[in-house]
Write a structure and sequence with these properties.
32% of the residues lie in helices and 24% in strands. It is α+β, with helices and mostly antiparallel strands and 310 residues long. It has two domains: 117 residues, no CATH class; 176 residues, Inositol polyphosphate kinase (D-amino Acid Aminotransferase, Chain A, domain 1).
Length: 310
């Protein structure tokens, strides 16, 4: 696979962010501006300062067109008579209508000048925007992360990269957690996630709740579980898609005072499906995804049991 590091002498200059934009500092995984691959600096996520929307770079080739096509499929016919209406329309397909709330709202594309040329970005809802101190983790779902078109080299690489995924059905890619006890943000990157063994997953998920009292932790876990079960129920019904190398983004409010001032669990946490470069049309159940999702639910249920005992 391609090398991601270079000597300082050969390393391309950092990209300049255009006026009105900034790097999105809560990005957990995916292409990042700090990475140089094959002599080219990657472009990370941006945030539009005026709209608050996230701009995710469209990858080159089939991966980018596939993800863009998926978003266009889910958020079809965005009410052309009301172009500023934020309500997504999914035509007459109930499966798409049920799926839409589980993924960030798609607002079309935008070309932003980056380096010597413009780059195409997808404009997406910032799921973290409603939280005062967002705590975020990115969890890749599925025992098999390579898609059906993958080469033997790619299959071998994916299996080497995270062998425990085949056992537990998901992989923690990283997290950013506001530690209320120290008033600092704890960051764990994908290198950390790759080192986790199956027996370390429970403590890693506990670490996602660091610095909080048990009552609040339990409230967060129960709210996350409610959302995870809703997504699982959709997967039990749907036969339209198979998702490979796709993730769940889990977010909760790290400021307990802000959470307690709201009676709505919508201000407590959120769970969204993200990363759709490897989504394939299907006519059978997505057992690969549901295996990982069911195991993730079991892990959070076990955490809930532990919190109730203490």
């Amino acid at each position: 696979m391609a090398q991601e590091t270079q000597s300082a002498a050969n390393c391309p200059e950092p990209l300049t962010v255009p006026d009105g934009f900034e790097w999105y500092d809560l990005q957990i995984a995916g292409h990042h501006q700090s990475v140089v691959k094959n002599g080219k600096r990657q472009i990370g996520f941006l945030k539009n300062k005026s709209t608050g929307r996230i701009l995710k770079p469209v990858q080159e080739g089939l991966l980018g067109s596939s993800e863009l096509g998926f978003y266009n499929t889910v958020f079809v016919l965005r009410r052309p008579e009301k172009p500023n209406d934020d309500t997504p329309s999914t035509a007459d397909d109930p499966i798409l209508a049920e799926l839409a709330p589980f993924i960030p709202i798609f607002y079309g594309t935008n070309v932003v000048p980056m380096g010597e040329t413009g780059h195409l970005f997808m404009q997406l809802e910032d799921v973290t925007a409603k939280f005062h101190r967002p705590c975020v983790t990115d969890i890749k779902i599925g025992a098999q992360t390579h898609d059906p078109t993958a080469s033997q080299e790619k299959i071998a690489y994916e299996k080497r990269k995270c062998p425990q995924a085949a056992q537990i059905g998901f992989r923690l890619l990283g997290m950013k957690v506001y530690d209320a006890s120290t008033l600092r943000v704890i960051s764990k990157d994908k290198a950390w996630g790759k080192t986790l063994q199956a027996e370390q997953i429970p403590s890693a998920l506990e670490g996602f709740m660091v610095g909080r009292n048990r009552t609040y932790q339990l409230r967060v876990v129960e709210s996350l579980l409610q959302r995870l079960h809703s997504i699982a129920a959709w997967f039990e019904r749907q036969r339209r898609f198979h998702f490979y190398s796709s993730s769940l983004l889990l977010v909760y409010e790290g400021d307990e005072d802000a959470a307690s001032s709201s009676s709505s669990d919508d201000q407590l946490c959120d769970v969204r499906m993200i990363d759709f470069t490897h989504v394939f049309d299907a006519n059978t159940a997505d057992t690969n995804y549901t295996y990982g999702l069911d195991n993730l639910i079991k892990q959070f249920e076990a955490l809930g049991v532990k919190l109730r005992k203490n």
